[in-house]
Design brief:
5-stranded mixed beta sheet; 22 strands; flat
Length: 353
């Protein structure tokens, strides 16, 4: 199973002996029905007779097919099919032309996600079947588990039948296994429901036997403040959730334009009328959030958040105003906490037309 993470370049190479030109056909679709014809056909002549390599970056064409307008990242269930808007099926056919004519080299189907590789991971990295970073995560323990603000979030897998998701209770050690029934992109809750009080470890077993990924999910009981929950598209192109547990502060900034007002009566004007008038008054809400004391892994998760192009703060669309982040460590900083600033992505006054 091949994966493309389209926020980074994905390079297709064609370099056949004696080729004079090359071509790729790019077919893209959401859901189960593959189009009968490709959406894009790209071709190139070779640069020179002694330089036959041709390269194509397919990522920009794939990104047009993602849609994250809807949110479904808080699962509350196990092996729930992921919305087909969140990933793209891609078929790439490669062709080479030489003195005998054009021939098809191969046809490969990929699953593409709106994620990215890091520079140090090299070209065309495959980030694996689990679309969440390993590490330690927390969730808000208090209250009714059915409330959206209390859900722990989901884990998205690009898995195959026979793979296993294993939950281990952090207190009792009780183990519950879920065997994935069919190939595809699917969501699992981060918590097995009976483990909500104590938290759990989640492991992904490829083929049901080999552990290739592990994360731990721990409850936080916050009595004084109401935690802020943040959902965002992470570096793997999947919805991820984090909580900011301590004090949060909302603010409102207002902009407007002024013009000089002509008095209605120059001889006997009303002094309450004024000489200036405002127009185009607009308001922008923002919020400052604080994490409280957190695990060292939290810094790497925050890096993914501030690099995200789709963020919801308390289920409202927002953008992160924090553009630099000092990654703290237990060795240097002892206790670790972070604060972030967000602007909500809407005007305070309804201006939708």
């Amino acid at each position: 199973m091949s994966r493309i993470f389209s926020r980074s370049p994905y390079i297709i190479e064609i370099d056949e002996s004696g080729q004079t030109s090359s071509k790729i056909e790019l077919t893209l679709w959401n859901g189960s029905t593959e189009p009968s014809a490709p959406q894009y056909i790209l071709s190139k002549n070779i640069p020179a007779s002694n330089l036959t390599q041709t390269l194509y970056n397919v990522s920009p064409y794939i990104r047009e097919y993602f849609n994250f307008n809807q949110f479904s990242g808080n699962a509350g269930a196990y092996e729930t099919p992921t919305s087909t808007n969140f990933y793209v099926n891609v078929r790439i056919k490669r062709f080479a032309t030489d003195s005998s004519g054009e021939s098809e080299l191969d046809s490969t189907v990929y699953t593409a996600f709106d994620g990215f590789g890091k520079y140090e991971e090299g070209s065309n990295p495959d980030l694996g079947k689990v679309l969440l970073s390993e590490g330690v995560y927390t969730y808000y323990k208090k209250g009714n588990y059915s409330n959206q603000d209390r859900l722990s979030g989901s884990i998205t897998f690009d898995a195959e039948a026979g793979d296993v998701v294993r939950y281990t209770n952090l207190s009792t050690g009780t183990v519950n296994n879920f065997t994935i029934s069919s190939d595809g992109v699917t969501n699992f809750d981060r918590l097995y429901t009976p483990n909500r009080t104590n938290g759990n470890k989640v492991e992904f077993l490829e083929g049901g036997s080999s552990i290739v990924w592990t994360a731990t999910f721990k409850p936080i009981e916050e009595c004084k403040y109401t935690p802020i929950y943040i959902d965002f598209i992470n570096r793997y192109g999947a919805w991820s959730r984090m909580f900011m547990y301590k004090t949060s502060k909302k603010s409102l900034s207002v902009t407007s334009n002024d013009y000089n007002l002509m008095q209605s009566n120059l001889v006997n004007y009303d002094v309450k009328e004024g000489q200036k008038q405002q127009f185009n008054i607009s308001g922008q809400e923002s919020i400052k959030v604080n994490s409280g004391w957190v695990h060292e892994d939290f810094g790497s998760h925050l890096q993914e958040l501030i690099m995200s192009e789709r963020i919801l703060v308390n289920n409202r669309p927002a953008k992160c105003k924090t553009t630099s982040l000092d990654i703290q460590t237990g060795l240097d900083d002892k206790t670790i906490s972070y604060s972030l600033d967000f602007d909500f992505n809407n005007d305070f006054i309804n201006s939708v037309i």
